[in-house]
Specification:
55% of the residues lie in helices and 10% in strands. The protein is α+β, with helices and mostly antiparallel strands and 342 residues long. Strands 1, 2, 3, 4 and 5 form a 5-stranded mixed β-sheet that branches. The two termini are 40 Å apart. The relative contact order is 0.07.
């Protein structure tokens, strides 16, 4: 994936990102803005506080906001995690770095709050020489209106935004890489050469297509499916392993060893917990995951089959039909027709 001179608008749909950013700001009670690696805003400010609006509109103070955004983003890159700090106006801000192939291309800046607990001594990364302006009655009144939150709340939201950013950028890169590879894919010449444009080979390109398809499937199932849980805590390690290793056909013996009990004891506990034997449960659960993918993605039957560990598409189709009475293709067709008629 080319990353030299990469800009955020090349990997993110800025219109959709703005909508998501607005929603995040409302739900977290934080003001949020996205900036490039220089600290220059590339989105509108979401839920910007009156105090910060006044500061950024001041010709004497606005440049220090940009410098804070830039330095905060660089410090987050150095730490490789969200960086919580005080801006030049003594309010709490957070920098969440956006990194692509080890290149810093921008950051999500959140915050514009004050802390309820004075025990936390946050670093102030920039001191404005115009502190006198911040002491005027208008600025003081606006400052007193800033939301007051606990440091723990700031930490939790910071990590959530970081994880979300990592996921969104990863998915965007997967999509863009597929587009880049597709553009390079050209018909094989009559000599039968398997070499392609700038070193891409047929096998390599097909491998990329397959792996990206599997990555999309895994990411979707993980984000949209409830984690498997059980009432018996002894069995939970096996349920966790099954959920986190959907491509693997987990043997009952291995599941039992994860729970540190014998296979026979595991079999009895599992049947009591689920009402069915282990192999049937695994097959039925894989079919449930397959239904999610058929309903909400355009992944091929072969890709879904591979990602869920069925091996051969034929076996996947046979298993799916056993539980749903129709083939995967028919299920997808009926589902989408029913959605379209509503």
């Amino acid at each position: 994936m080319k990353t030299h001179h990469m800009q955020l608008d090349k990997i993110l749909n800025m219109h959709k990102w703005q909508i998501l950013q607005d929603s995040l700001a409302i739900s977290t009670n934080l003001a949020i803005i996205t900036v490039d690696y220089k600290g220059v805003p590339i989105t509108r400010h979401s839920e910007r506080r009156p105090f910060c609006k006044m500061v950024r509109e001041s010709p004497h103070l606005e440049e220090f906001c940009r410098k804070c955004d830039s330095r905060g983003g660089l410090e987050a890159v150095r730490l490789n995690k969200p960086y919580i700090y005080l801006c030049h106006c003594n309010i709490v801000d957070i920098a969440i770095p956006i990194i692509v192939n080890d290149k810093y291309i921008g950051a999500i800046m959140a915050g514009q709050v004050t802390l309820s607990d004075s025990r936390y001594d946050l670093e102030k990364i920039l001191i404005s020489p115009r502190q006198d302006l911040l002491q005027t009655p208008a600025f003081r009144r606006a400052y007193d209106m800033l939301p007051v939150v606990s440091y723990r709340e700031v930490e939790i939201v910071s990590q959530m935004l970081y994880d979300l950013c990592q996921y969104i950028v990863s998915e965007a890169l997967n999509r863009n890489l597929m587009m880049e590879v597709s553009e390079r894919l050209r018909p094989i010449d009559h000599a039968g050469s398997d070499l392609f444009f700038e070193g891409y080979g047929v096998d390599a390109i097909h491998s990329v297509r397959k792996e990206l398809g599997n990555a999309v499937a895994s990411a979707y199932v993980e984000s949209s499916s409830k984690k498997l849980t059980c009432t018996n805590p002894v069995l939970q390690p096996a349920f966790d392993y099954i959920f986190n290793n959907r491509r693997e056909n987990v043997p009952q013996k291995k599941a039992a060893s994860l729970c540190h009990i014998s296979a026979s004891h595991f079999s009895r506990l599992f049947a009591k917990e689920t009402g069915e034997n282990f192999s049937r449960f695994i097959s039925r659960q894989k079919v449930e995951w397959a239904k999610h993918l058929l309903e909400h993605t355009d992944l091929s039957i072969t890709q879904i089959s591979e990602d869920l560990g069925f091996g051969e598409p034929g076996y996947f189709i046979k298993t799916f039909k056993k539980y749903e009475a129709v083939t995967p293709t028919t299920y997808r067709k009926y589902f989408r027709e029913s959605r379209g008629s509503k």
